[in-house]
Amino acid sequence: MSDSTINTEELGEKIVAVLKTIFDPEIPVDIYELGLIYDVFVNEDRDVKILMTLTTPNCPVAETLPLEVEEKVKSINAVNNAEVEITFDPPWTQELMSEEAKLGLGML
Prior knowledge:
The chain is of the alpha+beta class. Helix content is 27%, strand content 17%. The protein has one domain: GMP Synthetase, Chain A, domain 3, CATH 3.30.300.130.
């Protein structure tokens, strides 16, 4: 399948797979399972916008984590461009973590 025929749903799955390779330095769980990714938008030009949060506003990786997310998503061949927007609305809570993340951290 060439890049020109890739659909946004498939691209979304590739993006999620990449997001699952990025870990929060303080919690040994990937940022997707942690619930730090609020939304992933992909338009017809294959531009990606990711709305994400951090565990706390003064998170030690507040400067570097969004850049790492951008760089890794941009490295997907079918992605034209990627932009990360950080929000603290709503603020992150442990409730946003997946069952898998909670299980991995011994919270279930």
